[in-house]
Design goal:
alpha/beta, Arc Repressor Mutant, subunit A, Rossmann fold, 3 domains, seven-stranded mixed beta sheet, five-stranded parallel beta sheet
Length: 372
């Protein structure tokens, strides 16, 4: 492992700390704007070679905006790679101890960049309301340099264009009464001789802005997604279900809430098998606790995988030793636990690392995952 050096962040261009992590074939950054993140070596080499291409620069600015958003919202640091998969990265991969981050494809992150003005303004409001520097509702939020403007989803082929686009975004948010401009009296339109902003831009969320945030919160409460739990219906497992339920509820942001569903806890008049199939199809992901090797749990998990639903496998460690999982599914990365609290903690970490909030948000907005 190399020592840290000061370089320009490969995403936002701000001065950051960087080192090569040879054992992971990656480059590690600590950036004041983007936070902590890794870049796969192959992707890093491509970006370095294409550094002056405008298209690639804009893509990386979009990527930086989404990475900053994830940092504000408390998600694990991303391991950026050219992949379609999403999976956790541990310091100790063998024992699955100490989560370092989550491997995620750059195309997936860029695809989550705002698609229109309404989504843009709503997400900026949400992000700055959850930013770590917010002390009280009227705390001014500062943008001291052009790199920090990426938090507004602004892009530009050069610093001047980036500033102009950010000013246009802030001006429109002011016209919507979502924000107040604290300083300067007039938003800057040019940079100084050193290509920097003359005076730090400071804004605060207005009363109308906080009202809009409340409207967004109330609107999403009707679009709660569900996570289907397949497990052994034995009274001795009830406390473990509570651990699963808490993990699911705690793992997601309030605006992307997910409800835990177990079929014997749901009121219905249908045949049990039909209700199970319906609930699985309506769920954004499945948690399969194969403790006790219940055949129904394997069937439900297999059906879910067959229709493309993510499945998180969990099992009581004592059963894993004495009555292991069926051979066909032992290759899956299983969350093992020793107690309900152990299950809650380990499962919450796994959900945060592997279930994309972007996919949950998109499914909710499109009404694809109704509440059962």
């Amino acid at each position: 492992m190399s020592t840290f050096e000061k370089v320009a962040c490969i995403l936002c261009g701000y001065e950051a700390k960087h080192r090569t992590v040879f054992e992971r074939d990656a480059h590690y950054y600590k950036c004041p704007c983007c936070g902590k993140f890794w870049v796969d070596s192959t992707l890093y080499d491509e970006w370095i070679n294409d550094n002056k291409k405008e298209y690639e620069l804009i893509r990386r600015q979009q990527l930086a905006s989404v990475v900053i958003e994830r940092k504000f919202q408390g998600y694990p640091p991303p391991f950026l790679a050219d992949t379609d998969e999403e999976y956790p990265i541990y310091r100790d991969e063998k024992n699955k101890e100490e989560l370092l981050g989550v491997c995620i494809g750059v195309d997936q992150l860029i695809a989550s960049y705002p698609k229109n003005g309404i989504e843009l303004f709503d997400r900026i409001l949400t992000n700055i309301s959850t930013a770590p520097w917010i002390g009280n509702p009227m705390t001014p939020i500062g943008f001291p340099d052009t790199s920090s403007l990426l938090a507004l989803f602004a892009t530009g082929s050069d610093r001047k264009t980036l500033l102009q686009n950010a000013v246009a975004i802030l001006s429109e948010m002011k016209n919507l009464n979502y924000i107040n401009i604290v300083s300067p009296k007039e938003l800057p339109k040019v940079l100084d001789a050193n290509d920097k902003i003359n005076e730090e831009i400071q804004i605060c969320i207005s009363t109308a802005g906080w009202k809009r945030l409340q409207e967004l919160k109330e609107a999403t409460q009707g679009n709660i997604c569900q996570a289907f739990v397949a497990m052994w219906f034995d009274p001795s497992r009830n406390s473990y279900y509570e651990g699963i339920k808490e993990a699911v509820e705690n793992a997601h942001l309030p605006e992307y809430a997910v409800k835990c569903v177990r079929i014997d806890h749901t009121q219905h008049n249908e045949k049990i098998c039909g209700k199970i199939i319906s609930s699985i199809r309506q769920s954004c992901y499945i948690i399969a606790d194969v403790t006790g090797n219940n055949g129904g749990v394997y069937y439900e998990a297999g059906y879910a995988q067959g229709i493309g639903k993510p499945v998180i496998w969990v099992m009581d460690n004592s059963y894993f030793i004495d009555k292991p999982m069926h051979f066909d599914v032992r290759q899956y990365n299983t969350v093992l636990y020793n107690s309900p609290e152990d299950l809650r903690k380990n499962l919450e970490t796994r959900i945060q690392a592997t279930i994309s909030y972007n996919s949950i948000a998109a499914a909710s907005k499109q009404g694809q995952i109704p509440l059962a």
